[in-house]
Design a protein that fits this description.
globular; 267 residues; Butyryl-CoA Dehydrogenase, subunit A, domain 3; Rossmann fold; 5-stranded parallel sheet
């Protein structure tokens, strides 16, 4: 397999991680584009000591740590850079995402983040304490498969959140959200009755802001950058730690955005 084929094979999941790390499709894809540009200029930057996928994530991390980039892939102004620093994903969360969302081993995560396994374990413990301290919120689940919906409901409750309801269709989702506005939405993209969880969420987002985590059996279809796509995406089948990591990351960005708006209003 050629170098370009190896990169293309692992690019969708790198995009998923980048979007979860930055909180948006545009910013995540801009950092991935900057990494690819650096790789085109110097292919020796890709170290495959731990395999090509870990090598790509390691190179991405170097780009992420070295420069602030706007949604068009250009360096940002100092003011925008300061906003990025106030919203940056802490190292503990980076380690937790790499372990729980992307499924890397501790050794691979240590390589990606340029540290050691002992530090990764300490970072993971720190992330666990941070997750435990998350403010509980009301969660709307949009999922038509009964057992998956039950698993999600149980998981969300164990994380300390309240489930306001489980919607199995687009119509159900709109009705439930009108009854009580959720603080977080977990949504399947394709529902069994032919309706779309993505369409339901887009309709809800026209009336209020809420972080959304999408769940799909085909994540690669929504990681191309060719159209507006989810920032937070989980693959089926999922592990509890995966849902915990991504849901917490979505709430992390919402909380930081709210705090910045409050500071701006007070100034």
């Amino acid at each position: 397999m050629s170098r370009s084929q190896l990169v293309a094979e692992h690019l969708p999941l790198l995009r998923r991680y980048a979007r979860a790390l930055t909180g948006s499709q545009a910013s995540g894809d801009a950092y991935v584009a900057a990494m690819l540009e650096a790789l085109l200029q110097d292919q020796s930057l890709l170290n495959e000591k731990h395999g090509p996928r870990a090598g790509l994530f390691h190179l991405f991390t170097q780009i992420w740590n070295s420069v602030a980039i706007n949604d068009n892939g250009e360096p940002v102004t100092q003011a925008a850079s300061e906003r990025r620093l106030s919203n940056i994903t802490p190292l503990a969360r980076q380690a937790f995402l790499l372990l729980s969302l992307e499924g890397f081993s501790e050794e691979e995560v240590a390589y990606i983040l340029d540290t050691n396994v002992t530090e990764i374990r300490a970072l993971t413990d720190a992330a666990g304490r941070e997750l435990a301290a998350e403010i509980a919120t009301d969660v709307l689940i949009i999922e038509d498969e009964t057992f998956i919906a039950m698993d999600l409901e149980s998981l969300v409750k164990n994380l300390g959140h309240n489930v306001i309801g489980v919607a199995r269709t687009h119509t159900d989702a709109i009705a439930l959200a009108k009854t009580k506005q959720p603080g977080l939405i977990l949504a399947d993209i394709q529902l069994a009755d032919g309706s779309s969880g993505l369409d339901a969420v887009n309709e809800l987002l026209r009336t209020f802001e809420v972080p959304v985590v999408f769940i799909t059996a085909y994540p690669e279809r929504f990681l191309t950058g060719e159209r507006p796509e989810p920032a937070f995406l989980i693959s089926k089948p999922f592990q509890p730690a995966m849902v915990s990591a991504v849901a917490s990351q979505a709430l992390f960005f919402q909380r930081n955005s709210r705090n910045r708006n409050q500071r701006a209003a007070a100034s």
